[in-house]
Amino acid sequence: MSILIYGDHRSGNCLKVRWVCERLGLPFRWIEVDVTAGETRTPSFLAMNPAGQVPAVELEDGRILAQSNGIMLHLAERAGAAGLIPEDPYARAKMYEWLFWEQYSHETAIAVARFQLAYLNKPRESLDPRLFERGEAALGRMEQALATADWLVGDGLTLADVALVAYTRVAHEGGFDLAGYPAVKAWVARVERELGIG
Amino acid sequence: MSILIYGDHRSGNCLKVRWVCERLGLPFRWIEVDVTAGETRTPSFLAMNPAGQVPAVELEDGRILAQSNGIMLHLAERAGAAGLIPEDPYARAKMYEWLFWEQYSHETAIAVARFQLAYLNKPRESLDPRLFERGEAALGRMEQALATADWLVGDGLTLADVALVAYTRVAHEGGFDLAGYPAVKAWVARVERELGIG
Hints:
homodimer, alpha+beta, Glutaredoxin, Glutathione S-transferase Yfyf (Class Pi), Chain A, domain 2, 2 domains, four-stranded mixed sheet, 7 helices, 52% helix, globular
């Protein structure tokens, strides 16, 4: 039995889960779900994940989990000392801080702008300008953190890097230019190299 | 030394951290920060938490943590077997799922509507109607989960309940009527009783 990942291949949230499975050597099967075609709103999908969102995973025993960052935490915990979750309690807490910040302040600006522009093909002028202000602020905060560190937490790759690279690496598709964030740009390449993607 | 909680007393996100300290018997001092007066945007506050958000805590050793749900995880982990975090890996993962869902799908609708109506005194008609649709959907999802269970995860209070009760208990201030969600209403009373609040 392998893990089933229900995901849209264009979604950074879904790719996070795939990357963690690959990194940890966990066998998985990818079930493509087209968000733009309403496939997360069908009765059968909602029966599996009442939140109507991808990614959702079906574990080897048939139980379901949702929320990308929660799924990553679970898979990395199962893998034990394979890294990705710091053992030091404070470092682990800083990782949690980045994971929640990513979903609250980064994804909701950068991923949302990208979805509207690149997948719904809306013109930039039709989007709320605050999306772009909030996205620039999020990138600015990452630049500040990465100006003096190679990784978001501690001295190696953690789930914080995996979560935040997912939409930062495609921020240009949301109308953001990483040229103004050189430390972020170098970090994206570093994380991609480490994950073997890109 | 005790933990310093920088928080706005009207903010459910800040109260979560206070409740967990009280529940776990962790000594703390509360430093009031007025969000509406811009006190999270001062240079000294931003030096402490570059995200410019409350809550932030200063731990006993002077180190800083932010993000309410991440802070709760850290404090509950430190307390070890005192409950609030399930020991079973799948149950713990479901708790993570609720924590991320809370920040992504619940807080961003219900807390935001409440802030605009109750603290910025905006008229309801001036708010984006999707806020209310999304808030009702979030309450509907909770009702479905709580129709057959006393707690969101397993058979006792966890951080999932603490996180979600914070804004659900004041949802009426955001224009939501819990009368339509009887299981949620009963659960709010149950969690308040368990936390000794309300």
